[in-house]
Amino acid sequence: MTRVVVADDQPVVRYGFAAILDAADDIDVVGSAGNGAELLDVVAAHRPDVAVVDVRMPVMDGIAATAEICARHPGTSVLILTTFDLDEYVFDALQAGASGFLLKDTPAPRLVEGVRLVADGSMLLGPTITRRLVGDFAQRTTRAAPGIENLTGREREVLLTVARGLSNAEIGAELFITEQTVKSHVSEVLRKLACRDRVQLVIAAYESGLVGLSERA
């Protein structure tokens, strides 16, 4: 059972998202919050697998709350909610440690699936958004991407599919390997590139030029 908390300063939106998620058989909404400060207390009390977090909230915004959650509770993944697919705040949220984002008008099934993907360790960025968003985000960072040369051929393939925004299940289907094998490869790539999560893996792929080289091949 995936344990989830929802944070949004608009009660109708907050309760609506909570109701949608709680209706899923494999998701249990264990708490909610109306601002970032409340969210930190709720996360500390319930230790959820996923926190669904609005960007703009009073007292403490979603970005600041995300940074605190990722620092204090590494077992909780953060799924950011935003109004626009290229909202400038999303860049900061990803840098703070968020695992991805969804638009606030996302269909209910996509919200449920998004929580499942983030809980599974996947990065929730669609392929088109990945190219625009992470490409720009990589230009804002100065972190080098050492270790690419130490990846095996299969690990490079996995990194490329992660950079395209695919989930573990989708990567397994494309590369004809099991989902567990995908997880093992992703863990090894994370270790070799000294990356914290899949978002940083995507950034590393862009910074190294690996994505561009693949696309031109």
Compute the average pLDDT: 85
Spatial order of strands in the largest sheet: 2-1-3-4-5
Rg over CA atoms, rounded to whole Å, is 17 Å
What percent strand?
Answer: 5-15%
Overall form: globular
Number of helices: 11
Domain Response regulatory: 3-119
Pfam family, one: GerE
Protein name: Oxygen regulatory protein NreC
Modified residues (4-aspartylphosphate): 54
Question: What topology emerges from the helices and strands here?
Answer:
Elements: E1 2-7, H1 11-22, E2 27-33, H2 36-46, E3 50-54, H3 62-72, E4 77-82, H4 88-96, E5 100-103, H5 108-119, H6 127-140, H7 153-163, H8 168-175, H9 179-193, H10 198-208, H11 210-216
Parallel strand pairs: 1-2, 1-3, 3-4, 4-5
Helix pairs in contact: 2-3, 3-4, 6-10, 7-9, 7-10, 8-9
What does this structure look like?
- It is a single chain.
- Residues 213-217 have low confidence and may be disordered.
- The chain is globular.
- The termini are far apart.
- The longest helix has 15 residues, at 179-193.
- Helices cover 56% and strands 13% of the residues.
- The chain has a 5-stranded parallel sheet, with helices on both faces.
- The chain is of the alpha/beta class and 217 residues long.
